[in-house]
Amino acid sequence: MFDTEASQKPHIAQLNIGRTRYELEDPRIADFVNNLDRLNALAERSPGFVWRLKDDANNATAFRFPGDGETLVNMSVWESAEALEHYVWNTVHKQFYRRKGEWFQPMGENHFVMWPITPGHLPTLEEAAERLDHLNKHGSTDFAFGWDHLPHLKAWVGQQCA
Questions:
Q1: Alpha carbons 73 and 51: distance in angstroms, whole number
Q2: How do residues 68-82 score in pLDDT, each as one tens digit?
Q3: In angstroms, rounded to a whole number, what is the distance separating the alpha carbons of residues 108 and 68?
Q4: H or E segment at 116?
Q5: Which candidate in 14, 25, 46, 98 could, as Cys together with 87 as Cys, close a disulfide (CB 3.0–4.6 Å)?
Q6: DSSP 72-107
Q7: Any residues with CB less than 8 A from the CB of 61 and at least 6 apart, and which?
Q8: pLDDT tens digits, residue range 93-151?
């Protein structure tokens, strides 16, 4: 099915998790909740976007991190780390990222991980949990990594991200 040279280049999967400071219905987190559809639509229109985890209502807030019923997940696939970098750091998403401390508890460990996948593969939450666990135990490797593993990408520098 994937027989062209371009399709042989691995895609990048990413997982970002967080525990909210408040219930999703709480007015103190309304700016985050009220902009989820906007940010997700922007991601889906962005060059290099492939897929994101969502339910039939186009929502990902019903998903929880394996083994932790309180932790929200955001998981997506991109054609390249460069495409993901552009969306995260060069769109309105960056403004919301800067406010994460208002809405999410500090995690104490990495809350974000990327890993290469074969084009056409859709990662599972269990797979993502394994990658995040590997990153937390071993640091960035080719199996699971953060932005620091991609020295040619610089937009993340100074953003206080994991």
A1: 14
A2: 888 999 999 999 999
A3: 15
A4: strand 112-117
A5: 46
A6: EEEEEEES-HHHHHHHHHSSTHHHHHTTHHHHB---
A7: 24, 33, 36, 72
A8: 989 999 999 999 999 899 999 999 999 999 999 999 999 999 999 999 999 999 888 87
